Write the structure tokens for this entry.
Amino acid sequence: MRSIIYLFIAIVSVCLGIAAYFLVAFTPIEAGLLGLSIALACLLAFEVGTRRREIARLDQEISDLSRLHAREAASNQDLWVRVDKITDLDLGNRTEVIEADMSVLGTVVRQVAEATADMEERLARQDQMPETFIDEREAGQKPETYRPEPVIPPEMVRQAVEEGRLVFHLQPIVTLPQRRTECYDLVPRLVLEDGEWADMPDFLPRRGETQLVCRIERLIMQAAIAIVRRASTREQPMTLLVPLTRASLTDRDARAELVAALDANRIVAQNIVFAIDHQQFVAIEPDERDALDALVAKGAHLCIDNAYSLRLEIPALAGIGVRFVKVPARTFINDPGALTDFHTGDVAAYLERGGISLIARDITAEDQILALLDDGVPLAQGDHIAPPAPTETDIGDGESDPANSETVHQLRR
């Protein structure tokens, strides 16, 4: 910048000298002296102005530095006052308390380190054997619960299915304490010849009859898709829990149909949750797990139904798409030690941290709901809250609901 100003002064001086030579009739010496005088005057004025600005800036900086020194001196004075106060303090028992707290903290840190190391070992073993989704302690605690065989013979079930007497009801799963409907449980039922209802445990074969079970679950899947699609078209999207057994996961054609059905209905697949009994879930084979992974890849989620233990590997379960865990309310309230080592008030929060919601099923009395509220259980279902109710379905194959139909919209109200 300074060089430009010097160049400008030189150009102006030369121009004035030339003008004086040609216009005022100065001699070359006089014109040269005039230009040189003008140049010297401009340079002197510029240097004086520059020097004054530098002096003013230097004065400002010195003033700022003085203020900073004054502030620093005040801070030092305050610091020395505080140091004097601390020096005069009699710590006495405070040091002992601090040392005790540090000792306790060291013990806690050591315990956390041990627990972390144990968890890492378990995760490493889980990576080597990814099919284990339950705690090792559960291997020796799995209950040998007796489940009676279905009372309806397979021949009668097959005939009822062919006659279109397989119907589907919905049972709400509500939030606590608001009792607002969060999702629904699809409840397949068989209409007997005398008009009575038969629930799924009473007619679904448990041993053999794989083709019959696969056919029933195919109809269940068709009904679930029809219900969810109907709810979506009415702008009332709903989440539906659909029962599923190992029979459909083992049979190649059945699991291919399940995947194809979800693939053809991806817009509602995320609203379908496959509910698998806990005992069947822990017994699934690698090829069956591949089928589950394929269903989850299409957008569906999983639910562990009738859980006999909550000693679960939550991150592993969440990683394979499990979003709900159902436990019998009676066992959770009356015998929590059979389900978990945690306090019942901490179980729901522990599952929620892994993205899994706890559902208490089979609620039969109001006092059970009060106990669940004390334990922070977020979801509940049961006949005491709302029994399964009929719903309209268009599932094909001529099956229809012979009961008095009520729409999903009516159920949601």
In short: The CA atoms of residues 74 and 245 lie 78 Å apart. The first strand starts at residue 166 and ends at 175. The longest helix spans residues 28-88.
